[in-house]
Write a structure and sequence with these properties.
Blueprint (H helix, E strand, L loop, with lengths): L4 E6 L5 E6 L9 H12 L4 H14 L1 E2 L2 H9 L1 H4 L3 H6 L11 E2 L2 H13 L2 H4 L1 H10 L4 H5 L9 E5 L2 E5 L6 H12 L6 H14 L6 E8 L5 E9 L20 H4 L15 E5 L2 E9 L4 H14 L4 H6 L3 E4 L2 E4 L2 H9 L4 E3 L9 E7 L5 E5 L12
Parallel strand pairs: 12-13
Antiparallel strand pairs: 1-2, 3-4, 5-6, 6-9, 7-8, 9-10, 10-14, 11-12, 14-15
Helix pairs in contact: 2-6, 10-11, 10-13
Amino acid sequence: MDAMETAGVPFDTETTQLFLIGPASVAVPGTATGLEHAHRRFGSLPWRDLVAPAIDVARAGVEVTPTQAYLHEILDPLLRYSPEGDALYGPGRALRVGERFFVPDLGDTLEQLAAEGPECLYHGELAARTAAHVPITLEDLARYEVIEREPLATAYRGEELRTNPPPSAGGRLLAVGLEVLAAAEPAPLSIIRAMEAQAAMRREAIGGTTHISAVDGNGDAASLSSSLGSSGGVVIPGTGIQLNNMLGETHLAGEERPGARLMSLMTPSLLLREGRPRLVLGSAGSTRLHGAILQVVANVAGRGLGVEQAVEAPRMHFEKGVAHCEDPAAADELEAVGYPVVRWRQRNLCFGGVSAVEIREDGSLAAAGDPRRGGGAVVVA
């Protein structure tokens, strides 16, 4: 097996993360079959209809936004690591604001996925292309299956939080933080102490995640997190499929045996009041995501903020004994009691990317996408 390679990603002038990438970093992908499993259990629209918008976007492309252009720039060594990635992501450089990004090969793959279901990714020609390009066997792909698990539950201020259970560590970290915070007002010092408790049990990790929160007209709620890690920098030729680097996240993968489920930090969550959803949320942000969710839950259930204010509010993060703060007043308060502080001049994607939906007392909905990562939200009457 080829060795993994190292690539650095600068989040700002002082913060760089190292990522292990390449074919050897790729684990068996599970998103497509997981989505199809959820669709069979809970969906109402035909599978083909759900895939159709993604086909259109892949073929017609999207105009690159400022946030996307920034991400293309800092992730460029990963995105264009392979010849296929180099061809996919632009003319020898990162795509810029206003340029169009499209993936016609992925449109064709999604067309097949719409017609045949996700089985085509685990058997047949597409599976053979994957096995030929990375050290994953046809047997590895064929035996992949969805596992349903009971959510992890914890109480916070008379309400119930349900979140991602083991082998994910993210949900347990969130629960620990809320348990510490439950007896205190959500002020900067108490939040940092909750984060200290999280840090005491957390292993360092890297990665990148996408999150979607949704509530429908019947009050049914879904919180979905999906991750490529940081991307393995590998694109399967002729398919547009970009693969993960989950085995390259060594602090998550460790020495896992073949067939084992990997740990993650993804933390899709629901806050329930009297058994019904009150807040649906989750976040991107690697080691920062459970802290971001902690603060949004505290802002809504502890401070009484609406979801838009709760997501927009300045955040903190505790890492290696240092408090990182978006809010100068919080930084002053923490410095006064002896914490080393890093002051961030503006909102930054390093502090996560929360997507959330709130169900208000009168049954109306409000939603927020995190401006730190160009997030969006829409409420349809």
